[in-house]
Specification:
By secondary structure, the chain is of the alpha/beta class. It is built from 11 helices and 10 strands. This is Two-component system response regulator.
C-alpha cells in the first residue's frame, strides 16, 4: 500500500487507523460508562391536538465526568457496531419500566416509548428479555411502546414478524420510527402488529409551506387511519408546524415547541406533583 502512493495514501491509512483507534477508545469508555452508571434517561413529551401530554419518548444521554452531557449522535453509531448497543438498550428499557411503574403506582399512568436498535431486536434472547422485564416491573404492558426502524424489515422478515407478534401478544406496543425515510412498504405495514407510525421530522419541517411534504403527511395519515394505527409527528418546532398538524385529527405531536428532552426522574416527579394538585 505504500508503493508510490504518495502522501495521500499514507495520510488516508493514518486517518483510517486514527478513526479505528478513536472508535475503539470510545467503545471502551462507553462500556465503562454503562458499568459506572453514567447513562441518563431523558424524556420528551408527546402531546395531542389540544396540547395534553399523552406519552413520552425515552432518549439516552451520557453524562461524562469530564466532558459533560454527550448526545446519542456521538456514541450510538459506535455502540451499534458492537454488542454495546444491547447493554445500552437494556439499561434504557429497565429504567423506562421503572418510571412507568412509578407513574402507574401513583395512578398517573403514561405510555413511554423506547428506541430499540435492530441489533438488539434480532438477538436470540430479546423476547425473553421483554417477558422478564414485564414480570419484574409489574407494569401494564400497553404502557410500553417499542420504537423500531424500517431498517429492521430488510432482515429476515418472517423472524421479525414472529417476534413482534409474540411481544405484541404480551400487550406491548410497537411504533415505526422515522417512518418514510427508509424501506417503506405497505405490504409489511399490513403484516406487522404496529400501533403507531412516527412521521420523520424531515417531512414535518417544511410541511406547512411545501405542498409535497404536506401531501406526504396527509398520505401517511390516511394510510394510518385505514390501518387503524396512531401517528406521531416528530420535530414540531414552531407554531406553524403545530397549527398545520392540528388539521389531522388524532395526530400526536412531539418536538421542541412542546418540550425538549428533560431528565426523566425529575420530569416524572413534576408530573406526579402536578397530578396531586
Ligand atoms: P430519534 O429516535 O428519531 O429521536 C428523536 C430525536 O430528535 C432526538 O434526538 C430528539 O432530541 C430530537 N428532537 C426532538 N424534538 C426535536 C425538534 O423539535 N427538532 C429537532 N431538530 N430535533 C428534535 P437525540 O435525543 O439526540 O437522539 C438521536 C437519535 O439517537 C434518536 O433519534 C435515536 O435514533 C437514537 N437514540 C436515542 N436514544 C436511544 C436509545 O436509548 N437507544 C437507541 N438504540 N437509540 C437511541
Ligand atoms: Ca425514536
Ligand atoms: Ca425518529
Ligand atoms: Ca431519527
Amino acid at each position: 500500500a505504500m508503493l508510490d502512493g504518495g502522501n495521500r495514501v499514507v495520510f488516508f491509512e493514518e486517518s483510517m487507523a486514527r478513526q479505528a483507534r478513536q472508535h475503539f477508545e470510545l467503545a471502551q469508555a462507553l462500556q465503562a460508562a454503562i458499568e459506572q452508571n453514567q447513562l441518563r434517561l431523558y424524556l420528551q413529551p408527546q402531546v395531542n391536538g389540544s396540547g395534553v401530554v399523552v406519552g413520552a419518548e425515552s432518549l439516552v444521554r451520557w453524562e461524562h465526568p469530564q466532558r459533560g452531557l454527550i448526545l446519542p449522535a456521538e456514541f450510538i453509531p459506535v455502540a451499534e457496531e458492537s454488542r454495546l448497543i444491547v447493554a445500552l438498550d437494556r439499561w434504557m428499557l429497565r429504567r423506562t419500566c421503572e418510571l412507568i411503574a412509578e407513574m402507574q403506582r401513583n395512578a398517573c399512568p403514561l405510555r413511554i416509548s423506547v428506541n430499540i436498535s435492530p441489533r438488539h431486536f434480532i438477538e436470540a434472547g430479546f423476547v425473553d428479555d421483554i417477558q422478564r422485564l414485564l414480570e419484574s416491573s409489574a407494569i401494564n404492558p400497553s404502557l410500553l411502546m417499542l420504537e423500531v426502524t424500517e431498517s429492521l424489515m430488510i432482515r429476515n422478515m418472517d423472524d421479525v414478524v414472529a417476534k413482534m407478534k409474540t411481544i405484541s401478544a404480551m400487550g406491548v406496543c410497537f411504533s415505526i420510527d422515522d417512518f418514510g425515510t427508509g424501506y417503506s412498504s405497505l405490504a409489511y405495514l399490513k403484516r406487522l402488529p404496529i400501533h403507531e407510525l412516527k412521521i420523520d421530522q424531515s417531512f414535518i419541517r417544511d410541511a406547512p409551506a411545501d405542498a409535497n411534504d404536506a401531501l406526504l403527511v396527509a398520505m401517511i395519515q390516511s394510510i394510518a387511519t385505514i390501518l387503524n394505527i396512531e401517528t406521531v409527528a416528530e420535530g414540531v418546532e414552531t407554531r406553524e408546524h403545530s397549527e398545520f398538524l392540528t388539521r389531522f385529527p388524532g395526530l400526536i405531536q412531539q418536538g421542541y415547541l412542546h418540550g425538549r428532552p428533560q431528565p426523566g426522574t425529575a420530569w416524572v416527579k413534576k408530573r406526579l406533583e402536578q397530578s396531586r394538585t
